[in-house]
Design a protein that fits this description.
By secondary structure, this protein is of the alpha/beta class. The chain has helices spanning about 15-25, 35-45, 110-115, 115-120, 130-140, 150-160, 210-220, 250-265, and strands at about 10, 30-35, 50-60, 60-65, 75-85, 90, 105, 125-130, 145-150, 160-165, 175-180, 195-205, 225-230, 240-245, 265-275. Helix 7 (about 210-220) runs antiparallel to helix 8 (about 250-265).
Amino acid sequence: MTTVTGPIAFQGALGAYADLACRAVFPGVATLPCPTFGAVFAAVREGQAERAVIPVENSLYGRIADIHHLLPGGGLKIVGERFQPVHHCLLGVPGAKLEDVKEALSQEPALGQVIGTLRRLNIKPVARADTAGSAAEVAAIGDKSRAAVASSLAAEIYGLDILMRDIEDERHNTTRFLVMTGGKEPPRPDFRNKCITSFVFRVRNLPAALYKALGGFATNGVNMTKLESYMEDGAFTATFFYSEVDGRPEDRNVALAFDELKFFSEKFEILGVFPADPFRDRV
């Protein structure tokens, strides 16, 4: 990945897990919090940020909503990925003790990921819009009976005490983020490194079109690691597919598979070609 001076845009408040992912990918580079995913894309397109770091899926929660329709035509290209382990902390105001806490504030998915721990501690979950925002709220209220489920970074930013670390019920809790850029598409990764090609397509309205479109990946030995469907513009008959394969479009087997896919598709767009995160080899 080329040298980046920043800032790096993400959705959420300072201290969010996306903020943590930004700092892991680009150490020492400033981050730019944005209220929505659309605002993140706009920040990069308009030059307010140099890169965007966007969550696409979580090992417990599944696909992140409202992302896939922003990728095609969004004006950004995928240039990297980051698998970020999620380690939730219970954060309280300075001086609070674990036995003081009666309520835990956080984003609903995060609360679902720690519900077993909260039940054991007899702490009531209270849903809020996001994790870092919950930490900011707890800090502002200053009530020892209220805590937040958020990152250790949020504790540092909002001056909270970490009452308990690693409270997630499942240790494999991991969120995958995509690193995106605007403007001119960067050079393709070196072929000697493991690469991922991400793309979207919509098949033609023909019998068995999807089956035929995907056949080229099997016959050419291309490993497809992701295939997800989603609707566009509320049309029940026009299903798009978001997909990822191992390799680059320049690889002969991938190129042949894409030729067959495009023959049976009415729309095809490559969203990015990027190095695979070494995390993939550990799972």
